[in-house]
Amino acid sequence: MEEVLRFALIGLGLGAMYSLASQGLVLIYRGSGVLNFAQGAVGMLGAYVYYEARTTFELPFLVSALIGIAASGIVGVLVQVVIMRRLKNASPLARIVATLGILLTLQSLAVLKYGGRTTFVTPELPQGVIPLSGSIVLPWDRLIMVVIAVVLTVILWAVYKYSRFGLGTSAVAENELAASTLGWSSDRIAMINWAVGSALAGLAAILVSPIITLQVSVMTNLVLAAMATALIAGFRSFPIALVAGLVIGMMQTAVGRFSADIPGLADSLPLVAIVIILLVRGKSLPLRDYIFQKLPLVGSGRIRWRIVVPVLVAAAILIIAVPPRWQDALTITIAAAMITLSIVLLTGYAGQISLAQFAMAGFGAFIAGRMVSIWHVSFEVALISGILATIPVGILIALPAVRTRGITLAVVTLGLGTTLEFMVFNSDFLTGGFFGTQIGQPLLFGLNISAIVHPERYGLVALGLLLLMTLVVGNIRRGRSGRKLIAVRTNERAAAALGISITSAKLYAFGVAAGIAACGGIILAFRSESIVFGSTFTSFNSISAVGWAMIGGIGFLLGPLFGATLAPGSIGAALLNAIPGEFSTFLPLVSGVLIIFFVIQNQNGVAKEMSTLFKGLLPKLARDAKAHSSKELMVPNAASVRVSQKVLEVRNLTVRYGGTVAVEGVTLTVRPGQVLGLIGPNGAGKTSIIDAITGFAPQTEGDVILDGVKMNDLSAMRRARAGVSRSFQSLELFEDCTVLDNLLTAADPFESGSYFLEIFRPSKPRLSPATIEAIREFDLADELDTVVENLPYGKRRLVALARAVAIEPSILLLDEPAAGLGDVESAELAEMVRKLAKNWGIGVLLVEHDMNFVMGLCDEIVVVDFGKKIAEGSPAEVRGDSLVLEAYLGAPSSEEITEGMNR
After folding, report:
1. What are the residues facing 705 on neighbouring strands?
2. pLDDT tens-place string over residues 339-374
3. Cβ-contact 587, 329 below 8 angstroms
4. Domain ranges within the chain, ordered by starting residue
5. Is residue 328 within 8 Å of residue 456, measured between CB atoms?
6. Which H/E stretch holds residue 811?
7. Using 50, 70 and 90 to split pLDDT, how confident is the model at 890?
8. What is the DSSP string of 148-168?
9. Which residues pair with 650 in a beta bridge?
């Protein structure tokens, strides 16, 4: 026990560093809403500047340290002013990728200057020890580091709790627009927080460099432990970050001492903490939504064979004709393109930010390589086995995605991928040690395809597999599965309201993407007769791959081909090598700079620009694409639609948010063919009632019953499938999809088998009779090919209503459908809702503030105030109810009340 405690105390230095670095992460997140993945790299830069000042210029320790800290702070200011300010309204994906680009750029600069060597830094703090008990001692330098961390924590806590600047930071984080009306500049606050947060990273790196040495990869990887610390602190509490950092540092050092026979366990400890924390909390970080962010565009997934076939033939001829060095470069490019293609599916289509795709590639290569090495199986058996074995691992990594998203998911996947790297790829026992996994010359159906003996054969096999994987992703994009993934990517709430299983969609995307990445990893690994995993399948390459996908076009099938040219050893590197000099060494730096450039200037990537160029040069292709879409518009006449008629009963419904009672004891019934109005003053609980009925809000007490069956325990998706549909007050359409895709997503049948079948052949879009009737009723035929965000507001409201009825619901809940419409449009909408009830047999629950609209349309009306039902009856009865009059005007004069309700 004494020895455990002794090593735990030694870990105080590492813990103090984690605390300081995490304080910087907290500052930057609170000040700008950005989770800075480059925090470790920024600290590394400060540490190297300190080292140069101390050794090359022989400046005093304190002066050198201040220069290093200032250097990190200046980098933070430049990052905010030059990059992040321009991305204020960008998506979380864009801001994450920007910080990854900064990480790549800074790390590449350091590698160019210092290479991969380890630099030992002379300790400047006192090196004695303080005897505590027996053999237990406390090193002086660790104590001083802890004191520094504690003092800075107290200062930060006091400043951000009591100073005007701290209050301003909290105000901007809570509501930027409101804070700006009080004179606070969000840009200035973000800049100061970036400066201080980056300076803390520099201080942490300088203090810890004598303990862990100065090495590029070690310094940048420390950001993971700092993230775990910041997560425990909720990205808000400085004292909690201090304690968490010290505990993680102590535990990591102690575990490292007593588990030396389990490689990577100590390094993985903070990463495991990340996963546990996020799974327990079960929600994303408190993202500060500046008006919601626009995601990169998504391609159609159509494969134009008149272009693809000639390109494939040219690529095959090139692979056969060029010298072996270029053949290897082309093969690496193809393999990297497959790994990047997995990111197109997972991030571009499904919106799930994964920083573990090279880990998935490595795991597939690990399984395939070990099978060949141990059991001497053929290449085709190893390939299929590696892919199939990786799919469950991808699904396992996807489990946190069910409860987390966005920034948190990026952290989780990076942590899990890095854990795989530390504990599997770097294990001598599992991978064959120094000489790696020996696979010899692979045979494909008895044919030698060794990349060393027959590089042209191996390259052609790789090209064929890339085509196959591209067909898989294209098939998914064009079918029901693709529409479901894009719906989840765009708006999870709206997708659930259409009966789409968010969990199934995410697990599917992660699983298929893992298989595709595994295929690329196997091709990458089997180029040699001996596989060394640790140097290829790294978290750094996983981070880089997301950048390659962004540059190439993260939503387009063609994107991976462009992005993969930036991979190490790719055709891009070969071209740079052909130039006299060591230009290929600059490829990682070029990649980092290009990532930052594309995130700022063109988040849709090169593929989008090439697509636009092709359409301009080959107008016939554009006409053919339009003709293809127009075929889908030629829909047959639909028979009159009658839905399955069901009764919705709500009994004693109560909804609480913490200690606040939003709805209390509300009872109502919606019958087939009836329009039931639900009215009340602002804040009366109307939307909360709809949310509770549809499964989007917690139902504390009471019952929601559909046709005699309780739905209390059903999710929003299950309730939608049972026949309860809704519209949203904020519309919540799939903004970057066409009107037709919005309707098809709603009309697609709920068949889980389509996820598997559409890998091989996408289902053709079919418009159900209800969808056709909705298109006609809402006069949307001319807008089917129009992207929703380009529609006028009135049309967008109609699309939202048409989408809600396209799933043929028995019960339809409408949340302020007439908001923002003029009198003529409102009258037309009222007629449409009446037809849905009378002609389709749908029971309608209508929430609306326009009293003329409600009184003229509804058969009965329920009135709520402060979450309680205060009246129910016909429009005439409700209009004269004294409690209703008082709730609306607080007033007493029937003439005033009647006039107010008729406005």
Report:
1. 649, 710
2. 999 999 999 999 999 999 999 999 999 999 999 999
3. no
4. 2-121+138-253, 305-631, 648-901
5. no
6. strand 811-815
7. low
8. HHHHHHHHHHHHHHHSHHHHH
9. 668, 704
Cα 211 from Cα 173, distance rounded (Å): 36
What residues contact 155, with CB distance under 8 A and at least 6 apart?
none
Q: Tell me, what's the pLDDT at 291?
A: 35
Strand, helix or coil for residue 862: strand
- Comparing CA positions, the residue from 578, 544, 579, 583 lying closest to residue 564 is 544
Query: Alpha-carbon distance 78 to 130, whole Å?
Result: 42
Residue percentage of the chain with pLDDT more than 90: 60
Q: Are 806 and 770 in contact (CB under 8 A)?
A: yes
Report yes or no: 231 and 277 within 8 Å, Cβ to Cβ: yes
Q: Which pLDDT band holds residue 290 (cuts at 50, 70, 90)?
A: very low
Helix (H, G, I), strand (E, B) or coil at 139: strand
- The answer to whether 356 and 417 have CB atoms below 8 angstroms apart is yes
Q: What is the pLDDT of residues 70-115, one digit of tens each?
A: 999 999 999 999 999 999 878 778 888 899 899 999 999 999 998 8
| Three-class DSSP category at 8 | helix
Backbone angles phi, psi at 442, to 5 degrees: -70, 145
Distance between CA atoms of residues 341 and 302, nearest Å: 15
Phi, then psi, of 567 in degrees rounded to 5: -70, 150
3-state secondary structure 407-441: HHHHHHHHHHHHHHHHHHHCCHHHHCHHHCEECCC
Section 596-612 average pLDDT: 89
Q: Which residues pair with 865 in a beta bridge?
A: 868
Q: Who's near 756: CB < 8 A, 6+ residues apart?
A: none
Please name the helix (run of DSSP H) or strand (run of DSSP E) that holds residue 27, with its range, or none. helix 12-32
Residue 391 has pLDDT above 70, yes or no: yes
- The total number of residues shown for the chain amounts to 903
Alpha helices in 213-264 (DSSP H): 216-221, 223-232, 238-258
Instruction: Give me the chain's average pLDDT, please.
Output: 88
417 closest CA partner among 499, 556, 510 = 510
Tokens of 54: 């101390």
What the block records as the tokens of 300 is 């159609």
Q: How far apart are CA 783 and CA 465, in angstroms?
A: 39
In sequence order, the 6+-apart residues with CB closer than 8 A to the CB of 659 are none
pLDDT single digits (tens) 22-58: 999 999 998 888 889 999 999 999 999 999 999 999 9
What's the one-letter identity of residue 732? E
DSSP string, 664-723: EEEEEEE-TT-EEEEE-STTSSHHHHHHHHHTSS---EEEEEETTEE-TT--HHHHHHHT
* 248: nearest Cα among 267, 275, 263: 267
Residue 329 CA to its chain's centroid (Å): 31
**CATH fold match for the domains 305-631 and 648-901:** no
First to last CA, the chain: 78
pLDDT tens track for 699-749: 899 999 999 999 999 999 999 999 999 999 888 899 888 999 999 999 888
**Residue pointed to by tokens 């690990």:** 366
3-class SS at 43? helix
CATH number of 305-631: 1.10.3470
Distance of CA 390 to the CA centre of its chain: 21
The predicted pLDDT at position 580 comes to 76
Q: At 600, is the secondary structure helix, strand, or coil?
A: helix
Task: With CA atoms as reference, report the closest residue to 360 among 546, 252, 547, 513.
Answer: 513
Pairing mode of beta strands 648-657, 530-531: unpaired
CATH 3.40.50.1820 correct for 648-901: no
Q: How far is CA 210 from CA 242, 415, 661, in A?
A: 21, 26, 56
Query: CB neighbours of 583 closer than 8 A, spacing ≥ 6?
Result: 576, 577
